[in-house]
């Protein structure tokens, strides 16, 4: 009876941890979608009115890039302290910072009200928010999956992975509803602020849940052994695990590149190259995001049953094949065919993201897990995130409107990701309560834990 009570208590704590992680990830992607939409439409007029219209749009989009640029710094610093001081307290700080900056952006005076201080404050808030988001992404995953039972890590990983497409659906739905029910002048005046201010609700719920989540068992055990206080997480991660960090980074470049290709470049391609209406394009993206939610959940669950490696290899092979027929299918301009192309492409892409969190948690030891995961994750974002839509647009122009240059680029990234998974070990079910020894650099209890080699 006592064992059953303890098991129920452990599972309840794991469920709280995954709810906390999904809320943090949802807030991250909700803000990402909202800010990306208004940065190109509303903000240039309100915060950069003194500039030429084209320059104002570029300046507004630059504030978006500033936030993205601050993420790696946040990931590295939060990763270090997360491996030294614990996951829980740091996660309380990141979600609070994310929420406060979102609300302050919703309340920010415009250029007409406070002059040059308006864009300066906007940039400052984006830097703070980007810093917090950099720490939140990896930390939230670790907090959930270090609490998870070994046979449910994939399932929880899939729930975290679904947040990106789900938040895009919600954020676009909110913006569509506001713009449809408000006059353009009212939306520009205060309507765009509503989602940012309302996001405080997510923050309050997120903080409440995280206050009820204990420190992860893996970190508690490492602290008991005295490793947390004596280790140097960032240096140890690079010194001992640079090959694994590089392999995981190159793997995650695959789904990262394909996701941004689908949600950013493909919208422009549908509108400007194929002449598909904006309404149809957004509907196709909505269908793709719905399939992506399903793909993440299914992929995570299947990886608990069949292993991380087989699921990832199958999904990566599927996206490579789909890349070869994706743009020909869109070129038919048949709605059913285009919807099938978007659904399958984004669904199989998100299968990979649904397995990512579990793979990252399992492949690194506890004492460097936060730092190493953050380096791999943000590295993939820098290499294959915002750069892919820009490179794709350049290749489309270079190839005189033909998408095959884009296919060649993304297909190459996809094949590299597949190779990184193929040469790596299976990690499902291994003991994640393992650490590097302080003297020799090898992982302690490696034979017991089933250590995942490079």
TrEMBL record:
<dbReference type="InterPro" id="IPR036259">
    <property type="entry name" value="MFS_trans_sf"/>
</dbReference>
<keyword id="KW-1003">Cell membrane</keyword>
<dbReference type="InterPro" id="IPR011701">
    <property type="entry name" value="MFS"/>
</dbReference>
<feature type="transmembrane region" description="Helical">
    <location>
        <begin position="311"/>
        <end position="330"/>
    </location>
</feature>
<dbReference type="InterPro" id="IPR020846">
    <property type="entry name" value="MFS_dom"/>
</dbReference>
<feature type="domain" description="Major facilitator superfamily (MFS) profile">
    <location>
        <begin position="17"/>
        <end position="429"/>
    </location>
</feature>
<feature type="transmembrane region" description="Helical">
    <location>
        <begin position="249"/>
        <end position="270"/>
    </location>
</feature>
<feature type="transmembrane region" description="Helical">
    <location>
        <begin position="336"/>
        <end position="361"/>
    </location>
</feature>
<protein>
    <submittedName>
        <fullName>Major facilitator transporter</fullName>
    </submittedName>
</protein>
<keyword id="KW-0813">Transport</keyword>
<keyword id="KW-1133">Transmembrane helix</keyword>
<feature type="region of interest" description="Disordered">
    <location>
        <begin position="434"/>
        <end position="454"/>
    </location>
</feature>
<feature type="transmembrane region" description="Helical">
    <location>
        <begin position="282"/>
        <end position="302"/>
    </location>
</feature>
<keyword id="KW-0812">Transmembrane</keyword>
<dbReference type="Pfam" id="PF07690">
    <property type="entry name" value="MFS_1"/>
</dbReference>
<feature type="transmembrane region" description="Helical">
    <location>
        <begin position="114"/>
        <end position="135"/>
    </location>
</feature>
<dbReference type="GO" id="GO:0022857">
    <property type="term" value="F:transmembrane transporter activity"/>
</dbReference>
<feature type="transmembrane region" description="Helical">
    <location>
        <begin position="55"/>
        <end position="78"/>
    </location>
</feature>
<dbReference type="InterPro" id="IPR005829">
    <property type="entry name" value="Sugar_transporter_CS"/>
</dbReference>
<feature type="transmembrane region" description="Helical">
    <location>
        <begin position="373"/>
        <end position="396"/>
    </location>
</feature>
<dbReference type="GO" id="GO:0005886">
    <property type="term" value="C:plasma membrane"/>
</dbReference>
<feature type="transmembrane region" description="Helical">
    <location>
        <begin position="190"/>
        <end position="209"/>
    </location>
</feature>
<feature type="transmembrane region" description="Helical">
    <location>
        <begin position="402"/>
        <end position="424"/>
    </location>
</feature>
<feature type="transmembrane region" description="Helical">
    <location>
        <begin position="90"/>
        <end position="108"/>
    </location>
</feature>
<feature type="transmembrane region" description="Helical">
    <location>
        <begin position="156"/>
        <end position="178"/>
    </location>
</feature>
<keyword id="KW-0472">Membrane</keyword>
<feature type="transmembrane region" description="Helical">
    <location>
        <begin position="21"/>
        <end position="43"/>
    </location>
</feature>
């Amino acid at each position: 009876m006592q064992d059953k009570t303890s098991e129920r208590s452990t599972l309840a704590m794991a469920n709280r941890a995954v709810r906390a992680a999904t809320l943090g990830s949802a807030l991250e992607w909700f803000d990402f979608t909202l800010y990306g939409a208004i940065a190109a439409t509303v903000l240039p007029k309100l915060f950069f009115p003194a500039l030429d219209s084209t320059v104002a749009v570029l300046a507004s989009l630059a504030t978006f890039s500033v936030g993205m640029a601050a993420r790696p710094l946040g990931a590295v610093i939060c990763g270090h302290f997360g491996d030294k001081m614990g996951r829980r307290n740091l996660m309380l700080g990141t979600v609070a910072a994310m929420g406060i900056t979102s609300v302050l952006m919703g309340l920010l005076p415009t250029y007409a009200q406070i002059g040059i201080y308006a864009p300066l404050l906007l940039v400052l808030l984006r830097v703070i928010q980007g810093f917090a988001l950099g720490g939140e992404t990896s930390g939230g995953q670790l907090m959930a999956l270090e609490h998870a039972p070994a046979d449910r890590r994939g399932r929880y990983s899939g729930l975290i992975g679904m947040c990106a497409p789900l938040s895009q659906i919600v954020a676009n739905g909110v913006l569509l509803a506001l713009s449809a029910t408000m006059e353009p002048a009212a939306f520009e005046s205060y309507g765009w602020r509503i989602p940012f201010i309302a996001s405080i609700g997510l923050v309050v719920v997120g903080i409440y849940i995280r206050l009820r989540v204990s420190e992860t068992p893996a970190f508690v055990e490492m602290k008991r052994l005295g490793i947390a206080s004596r280790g140097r997480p960032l240096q140890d991660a690079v010194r001992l695990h640079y090959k694994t960090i590089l392999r995981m980074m190159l793997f995650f470049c695959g789904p990262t590149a394909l996701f941004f290709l689908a949600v950013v470049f493909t919208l422009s391609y549908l509108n400007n190259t194929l002449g598909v209406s904006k309404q149809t394009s957004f509907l196709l993206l909505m269908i793709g995001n719905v399939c992506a939610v399903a793909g993440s959940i299914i992929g995570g669950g299947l990886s608990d049953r069949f292993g991380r490696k087989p699921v990832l290899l199958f999904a990566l092979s599927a996206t490579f094949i789909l890349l070869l027929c994706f743009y020909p299918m869109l070129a038919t301009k048949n709605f059913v065919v285009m919807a099938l192309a978007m659904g399958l492409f984004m669904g199989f892409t998100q299968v990979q993201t649904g397995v990512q969190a579990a793979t990252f948690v399992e492949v690194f030891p506890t004492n460097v897990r936060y730092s190493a995961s953050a380096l791999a994750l943000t590295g993939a974002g820098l290499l294959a995130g915002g750069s892919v839509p820009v490179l794709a647009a350049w290749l489309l122009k270079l190839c005189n409107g033909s998408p095959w240059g884009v296919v060649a680029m993304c297909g190459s990234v996809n094949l590299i990701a597949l190779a990184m998974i193929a040469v790596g070990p299976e990690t499902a079910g291994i003991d994640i309560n393992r650490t590097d020894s302080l003297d020799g650099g090898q992982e302690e209890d490696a034979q017991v834990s089933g250590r995942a080699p490079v």
